[in-house]
């Protein structure tokens, strides 16, 4: 009501001014200029919605057409006027028309795996399909009006934006964007050379990996403690097993020494036998011969 009242007041003021003198005409022009600058004409609000990491779950309900674009993309710039006209028809067709700036929303870029620009998705009650048709207003309208999206195979639930895998991808893309911003801050604001920034990130990655590994080890020991160390008789059993092992080792050494002694005795006996056989006195023929010779001499 207030803008309409101001408009009526401005029209009344203009109609009441005399139009014959040039000074009055100049005054009217100034009043009109001030009125237009202070009360701009009310335009129709844009039906194009913006999707961010904070409100992306809104597209899981209802029917949506979503454009992923980047301001520096020439193809996206050519599509933008068509997409704006298409958005004006969205309310009449019962479809929400939205856009996503991938440079500002890296999480959504990873969640939907955007590999080319512009990329258009159709969503109906949480079921996503990728639009591959022509990018004219008539083609987009017929795609919705004739329900051509029913002939397109939907995205698998494994690769859906709300799946665990895509949540992980979104977190990785956000992390990469955060690292990029830190890198630019170190170079542009702090004046650190590029190689110095790489060294800082390398050391930070190494340190964070070590800390994360220690935390995981502590958590694993706390959640899944070793049962053998919790047993009250563990150390007693360990000592008994150690003593048994030492006793067995001593017995094996004694048996080995006994076998060596037996082998030495056998070797000694064999040596005595061979000595007897080798000596002339040890041979039976020599002994008999000596006895016969001795008997002949006595006779």
Please provide a brief summary of the model.
With 299 residues, the chain is α/β, with parallel strands linked by helices. The chain is 62% helix and 9% strand.
Q: Layout of helices and strands, plus pairs?
A:
Elements: H1 2-16, H2 22-38, E1 49-50, E2 63-69, H3 74-93, E3 96-101, H4 106-111, E4 119-124, E5 127-131, H5 137-145, H6 164-188, H7 194-223, H8 227-230, H9 234-278, H10 284-298
Parallel strand pairs: 1-3, 2-3
Antiparallel strand pairs: 2-4, 4-5
Helix pairs in contact: 3-5
Characteristics:
alpha/beta; 10 helices; five-stranded mixed β-sheet; 299 residues
Order of SSEs, N→C?
HHEEHEHEEHHHHHH
**Which residue ranges are poorly predicted, with pLDDT under 50 across at least 5 consecutive positions?**
1-14, 39-44
Largest beta-sheet details: 5 strands, mixed
- Which value, in Å, is the CA radius of gyration? 49 Å
Task: Describe the protein in words.
By secondary structure, the chain is of the alpha/beta class. It has helices at 2-16, 22-38, 74-93, 106-111, 137-145, 164-188, 194-223, 227-230, 234-278, 284-298, and strands spanning 49-50, 63-69, 96-101, 119-124, 127-131. A five-stranded mixed beta sheet has the order 1-3-2-4-5. The termini are far apart. Mean pLDDT is 75; it is low at 1-14 and 39-44.
């Amino acid at each position: 009501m207030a803008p309409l009242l101001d408009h009526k007041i401005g029209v009344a003021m203009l109609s009441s001014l005399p139009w014959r003198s040039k000074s009055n005409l100049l005054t009217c022009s100034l009043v009109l200029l001030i009125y237009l600058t202070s009360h701009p004409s009310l335009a129709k609000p844009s039906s194009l919605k913006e999707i961010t990491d904070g409100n992306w779950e809104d597209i899981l309900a209802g029917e949506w057409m979503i454009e992923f674009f980047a301001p520096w993309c020439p193809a996206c710039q050519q599509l933008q006027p068509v997409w704006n006209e298409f958005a004006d028809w969205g309310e009449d067709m019962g479809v929400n028309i939205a856009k996503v700036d991938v440079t500002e929303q890296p999480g959504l870029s990873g969640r939907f795996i955007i590999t080319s620009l512009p990329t258009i998705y159709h969503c109906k009650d949480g079921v996503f399909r990728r639009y591959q048709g022509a990018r004219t207003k008539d083609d987009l309208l017929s795609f919705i009006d004739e329900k051509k999206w029913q002939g397109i195979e939907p995205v698998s639930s494994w690769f859906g934006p709300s799946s665990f895998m895509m949540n992980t991808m979104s977190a990785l893309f956000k992390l990469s964007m955060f690292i990029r911003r830190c890198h630019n801050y170190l170079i542009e604001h702090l004046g650190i050379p590029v190689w110095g920034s790489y060294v800082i990130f390398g050391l930070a990655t190494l340190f964070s990996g070590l800390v994360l590994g220690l935390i995981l080890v502590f958590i694993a020991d706390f959640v899944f403690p070793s049962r053998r160390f919790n047993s009250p008789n563990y150390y007693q059993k360990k000592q008994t097993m150690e003593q048994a092992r030492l006793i067995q080792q001593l017995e094996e050494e004694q048996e080995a020494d006994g076998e060596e002694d037996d082998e030495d005795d056998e070797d000694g006996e064999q040596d005595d036998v061979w000595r007897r056989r080798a000596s002339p006195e040890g041979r039976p023929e020599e002994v008999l011969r000596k006895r016969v010779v001795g008997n002949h001499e006595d006779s």
